[in-house]
UniProtKB/TrEMBL annotation:
Pfam families: Pkinase. The keyword Kinase applies. PROSITE patterns: PLD, PROTEIN_KINASE_DOM. This is Kinase-like protein. Residues 91-321 form the Protein kinase domain. GO terms for biological process: intrinsic apoptotic signaling pathway in response to endoplasmic reticulum stress; IRE1-mediated unfolded protein response. InterPro entries: IRE1/2-like, Kinase-like_dom_sf, PLipase_D/transphosphatidylase, Prot_kinase_dom. Residues 83-111 form the PLD phosphodiesterase domain. It comes from the Eukaryota. Keywords: Kinase, Transferase.
Length: 321
């Protein structure tokens, strides 16, 4: 590897140990004010500022080449929360090049043809959806086992955040989970999901490559795959949580949907989008209603007590299942 440039060393030193603003926040500000798709450092020895050059890229907006019903990531009807009146149908897809597309139509699902749906899909800008790649992170190898899962940003959130002019929260959310998985990859645990690294396209993190298991705990019991040996199961889940707490982190969104069941019938803890160091502020991902104490709006700070409370709720839920 070549020697790190002066600009890169200066930028690294600037952001080292700095919680606010983060590098990703500064880069996003640069992109937003310049309407650029990417930024890079200017190698200017002696400069006292964090300087970037914004590169403008123009993309012809086109619908994806081929869409089938089974490729849709989301295809759901939206209703007014107060009146219950139908509003529109939302749909999205991510193609083989990791380009995300999103669309809506003012028709019910059963009235929409595949041709109409495909024509209504428009590509999502990478910088609105995927965080920038950082060479310090783990890049997933090209050769991967067949049983992998690619976790991407949640396309369901795109329409909501677009409406509220908060699209930056989508790539920020994925990047927070990347940081958690990078930390855990240095401190593995048998009951925490295995992380292969980041999937990278066009200089962006387009997904987290994780091991795949067929069922969440919710679906495992709902589909009556097998019975769960509750005491060993809960002890293994508690072990994963204790391990996380020993690293001064909390999960903050423990619920049966965020626990997979492996072939041995044991738990695998997943979904670290809400995981933070103890005492730090939570982002937009912050617990699941019914599995936390109190209201979501009051759920602000990473705390090991969130996980301990959820463990008790899961234990009680298993007793009733």
């Amino acid at each position: 590897m070549g020697e790190t440039s002066w600009a890169q060393r200066a930028v690294d030193n600037f952001f080292k140990g700095r919680e606010c603003p983060t590098r990703i926040e500064c880069d996003q500000i640069a992109r937003s004010v310049s309407d650029a798709l990417d930024v890079y450092n200017v190698d200017t020895p002696g400069a006292m500022t964090y300087t970037v050059v914004c590169t403008k890229q123009y993309t012809i907006l086109m619908a994806p080449r081929s869409v089938t019903w089974d490729l849709l990531t989301i295809f759901e009807e939206d209703f007014d929360q107060e009146t219950g009146a139908f509003q529109h149908t939302t749909f999205a897809v991510i193609d083989e090049d990791d380009i995300a597309y999103f669309g809506t139509l003012n028709y019910r699902k059963h009235d929409i043809t595949l041709e109409q749906l495909t024509s209504a899909l428009t590509p999502i800008s990478d910088h609105d959806f995927f965080p920038p790649w950082d060479e310090k992170l783990t890049r997933a190898p090209d050769a991967l086992p067949p049983n992998i899962y690619v976790k991407r940003p949640d396309l369901v959130l795109y329409g909501v955040f677009q409406e509220h002019n908060a699209l930056r929260l989508i790539p920020e959310g994925l990047f927070e989970e990347v940081k958690a998985m990078e930390m855990l990859s240095q401190h593995p645990h048998p009951n925490i999901i295995y992380y292969y690294g980041c999937r990278v396209r066009r200089g962006r993190i387009t997904g987290l490559i994780l091991e795949r298991h067929s069922y969440t705990l919710t679906d495992y019991l709902k589909n009556k795959v097998k019975s769960v040996d509750k005491e060993p199961f809960m002890e293994a889940l508690k072990s994963a949580i204790r391990h996380l707490h020993s690293l001064d982190w909390a999960h903050n969104d423990l619920n049966p949907g965020n626990v997979l069941v492996n072939e041995a019938g044991m738990p695998i803890l997943i979904d670290f989008g809400s995981a933070r160091r103890i005492g730090t502020k939570l982002g937009t991902s912050r617990g699941t209603k019914g599995w936390i104490d109190g209201e979501i709006k009051d759920y602000h700070t990473s705390d090991y007590r969130h996980d301990l409370s959820a463990l008790e709720k899961i234990h009680t839920w298993l007793d009733k299942s």
